[in-house]
Each structure stands twice: as C-alpha cells, then as structure tokens.
Amino acid sequence: MTAIVLYCRPGFEKECGAEIQEKASWNEVYGFLKLSKNEGLVQFHLHDESQAQRLMQKLPLTRLIFAREWFATLDDAVELPEYNRVEVISEALGERFHYQELRVETVDTNDGKALSKFCRKLSVPLRQYLRKSGVLAKKESGNYSDNAIVLHALFLSGQQVQLGYSFARNTSEHVMGIPRLKFPNASPSRSTLKLDEAFLHFIPKSDWDTRLTSGLNAVDLGSAPGGWTYQLVRRGMMVKAVDNGPMAESLMETGQVKHYEQDGFKFRPHRKNNYWLVCDMIENPTKVAKLMASWMIDGDCKEAMFNLKLPPSAGRYQLVMKNLQTIKDLLSDNNIRYEMYAKHLYYDREEVTVHLRVLENR
Ligand SMILES: C[S@@+](CC[C@H](N)C(=O)[O-])C[C@H]1O[C@@H](n2cnc3c(N)ncnc32)[C@H](O)[C@@H]1O
C-alpha cells in the first residue's frame, strides 16, 4: 500500500479529496481517501507505488485547485526515538532515491506551528547527515534536471515522521506550497497579499517584464480600499478602479489611478487598450465567471485574475468546476483560444483565485 499525501487549507480536506479522486480517475488511477479533518491533510491510498508515481508524473499539480502541495509516501510513518533521530530517518530512507532537496514540513495548524522550532533544529543535522551519506545532493541549486526528486519529511509529531518524495518539475516551489509574503505597509488592505501571491503563482517570473510591467493598463473591479490596485500601481500600471466605496488617498495621489464609482457588472473601458482585468468583488460566482468571459470575448482585456466565492456548505469543489466549465463553454463558443488555471491560494479563504489568459481571439 502506498499513498499520495496532499496539503490543503485546513477545513477544505473534503474538496481536496473529491478533486484528487476525480482527477486520478481521469488517469485511470483509483484509490480511497483518508482525511485529517481541519488539519489540511489528505491521504489518497493506492494499491501500489507505480500508480502513485504514474499519477504524480501525469497529473500536473498546477491542475489541482485545492491541493497546495503533494508527495508520495515511502512506506508507513517512521517512529522516532528520543535520541539518534537523524540516523533512524536515514536508515528508513535507505538508498532508494538520490534527492535534490529536503523539505521539512508540518501540518498547517497551531499544533503543526508549535512543532516548527523542533523541525528547524533537526533539519540542520539531518540535511548534513544525508548529504554526507550521498542520499541528498550536496547543493540545492533550484535548477533541476527533469527527473530530479524532492524529499519530504512531514513531522506529524516529535515522535513520528512521514517520509515521501515528489518530482521536482511537478511540485510546489515553496515548502508545503506556502509562499511567505511580507505585508507592504503602504497597502490600504491585507487583501493585497492575495493578488501578490496570485501573480507569483500564476505568472512565471521570466514573463514579469512583459506581462506585469509599467505602462500596462489595468481595470480593478471591486477595488476599494485599494489593496489590489496597490499591487498594480507598484508595478507601474495605470489603473481604472471601480467601486462605490472610497479608495485610499495615498493611491489616488500617485496619479496612476482613476476612480469610477460604478457597478462593476456594468463598467467597461471606452478603448481596447486594457491589458489586465482584476476582480475581487464579493458577488455570486456564476455571475462573476460570466462577466470575466464576456470581457475576454469582447477583447476588453488580455489577462484576468479574479476570485470565485465559495459557498459555506458542501459541494464546493463541484461548484468551482461548474463555474470554470461555464467560462470554458463561453470562450469555446466564441472561438477563443485561452489558458485558465485555478488555485485555492494560501492567502485565499472562502474563495479560489482564477487566472485566465487569452491566447488568440479569432
Ligand atoms: C473584498 S473587497 C475588495 C478589496 C480590494 N480588492 C482590496 O484589496 O482592497 C470587495 C469590494 O467589492 C465591492 N463590490 C461588491 N460588489 C460590487 C459591484 N457590483 N460593483 C462594484 N464593486 C462591488 C465592494 O464595495 C467592496 O469594496
């Protein structure tokens, strides 16, 4: 027996489980779930290791909405003694793989956070020991070959660790899929971190010079008080901010923002020179999905970043899939080539973030 362990936001284990089960079945991989309620941890048990490997190679992590990160287990969790923990972990690893990187992890709960000091302390000698014994690469370059493997050590407690691996080209670049972002004091709201993370997650850094750069025009629907506008302004963009609520004076003073006190569902720019559409309106997600598709169809933006609100009840995964399908259908009916990815990001709560980009509007 082997399992794929997936990390998600605590409270969203059901959604994460439903999604991996469905998307695995599209790849003819079948298994059963074990959810750790409110611990942000899902285990998808499979009959043999080759299935886990096949799935983790075929299904891009970027295609999973609710999973932040994943790894395949190496055997059962290892019981740790009071002393010689490093040696016990090394012995459990054996010589099955050569790893490029070690990720020491805990669950995303208060208990998990309480363990992080212990983990930080242990990770130094563990890393050294594994490097010395040749199990771990001497240096983490971040520039890995196609079949490079990442070692995961998930500490369930001070006495138990689950070891596993993921493929470097199909794993998160952040430990447990969580980027550590600093709140910028100049931003008028904490929501700013959501758009900051979204840009980091969806737009490759190598494209920032062309797709997130000064001189581009952007529209921000549901912009007040201006946390998202702040992210656009700080990248040098000119922003049309649409909201009946007030915008922060500091943003208006930059001269890069024009405030429209209008309904975001009715507003449209007069000229077709707008690159970004961002939307953080807390509104019916199906209405938002249709609005985003219509901007693309009408050629009123090239890329959009928006939230789809999640209902508090069951069926949240299915609802997101339904709204994404609505967008796909509308764009296909209008012969638009596009790419679309969705993720329940770390700074998202009761919403998922979607990135939509038009590739060709025929
Ligand atoms: C979560 S807040 C946006 C926060 C903003 N992104 C920030 O970072 O400061 C949602 C905003 O959407 C606005 N909103 C909701 N429905 C709207 C609509 N139909 N048209 C325009 N704004 C709307 C609300 O007035 C509210 O200011």
Describe the protein in words.
This protein is 31% helix and 25% strand. The chain has 362 residues and is of the alpha/beta class. Strand 7 and strand 8 form a beta hairpin. The protein is globular and about 65 Å long. The N and C termini lie far apart (50 Å). The chain binds S-adenosylmethionine. Residues 189, 191-192, 222-228, 242-245, 263-265, 280-283 line the site of S-adenosylmethionine.
Name a few traits of the molecule.
about 350 residues; Alpha-Beta Plaits; Rossmann fold; 2 domains; 7-stranded mixed beta sheet; binds S-adenosylmethionine
Brief summary of the model shown:
Helices cover 31% and strands 25% of the residues.
What's the structural blueprint in terms of helices and strands?
Blueprint: E1 2-7, H1 13-26, E2 32-36, E3 41-46, H2 49-58, E4 69-73, E5 78-79, H3 85-93, E6 101-105, H4 110-132, E7 149-157, E8 160-167, H5 192-202, H6 208-211, E9 217-221, H7 227-233, E10 238-242, H8 249-252, E11 257-260, E12 276-279, H9 285-297, E13 303-309, H10 316-333, E14 336-343, E15 351-361
Parallel strand pairs: 6-7, 9-10, 9-12, 10-11, 12-13
Antiparallel strand pairs: 1-3, 1-4, 2-3, 4-8, 5-8, 7-8, 13-15, 14-15
